[in-house]
Design brief:
This protein has 156 residues and is of the alpha+beta class. The protein has helices at residues 7-26, 74-93, 103-120, 127-142, 146-155; strands spanning 34-37, 42-46, 53-58, 64-68. It is built from five helices and four strands; from the N terminus they run H-E-E-E-E-H-H-H-H.
Length: 156
């Protein structure tokens, strides 16, 4: 029986190939840092130190709007980003704000306006009463579930 020259070398290469194959199998494919959707109108990306994908989209007015998808999976994030973009475009076509606001946000704007009018002396004397009613009654009542939740509760 004759010995094959370099047999030890071939065995070492075969073992290295098996180890390299296992290491490659353990690696996950690299995720893209940004993903362009809808001809570049929607950009999907992940911020540093975050596991959740963010998206930004450009509406017909030319301004970019940022939103969180709330998803860690890129497949789900793509679906959510496209849905957010579609909803914003639909709302824009109807002449609505690109994002729905809750009662607390609208009340904060109204309170700031009422306070500005009361401080300037241009508003009604009842402005202080309006401020108190909004803060005492409306905000605690409607901020729990929003106006939509309250309307659904009243209907049922």
């Amino acid at each position: 029986m004759t010995a094959v020259p370099y047999a030890d070398t071939f065995a070492a290469i075969a073992l290295n190939d098996i180890a390299a194959t296992r290491k490659l199998a353990a690696l996950s494919p690299a995720q893209p840092t940004t993903l362009l959707l809808r001809d570049g109108e929607v950009v999907l990306y992940r911020r540093k130190n975050s596991v959740v994908f963010q998206c930004r989209y450009k509406l017909a007015d030319g301004r970019w709007h940022r939103r969180s998808t709330g998803k860690t999976s890129i497949e789900h994030a793509v679906a959510v980003a496209c849905a957010l973009y579609d909803e914003a475009r639909f709302r824009q076509r109807l002449g609505l704000a690109h994002r729905a606001q809750n009662f607390a946000q609208i009340a904060a704007l109204a309170l700031a306006d009422l306070r500005r009018r009361a401080d300037a002396g241009n508003g009604k004397t009842a402005a202080h009463d309006y401020i108190n009613c909004i803060e005492r009654y409306f905000l605690p009542y409607f901020s729990e579930g929003g106006v939509k939740h309250q309307v659904q509760h009243w209907v049922h």
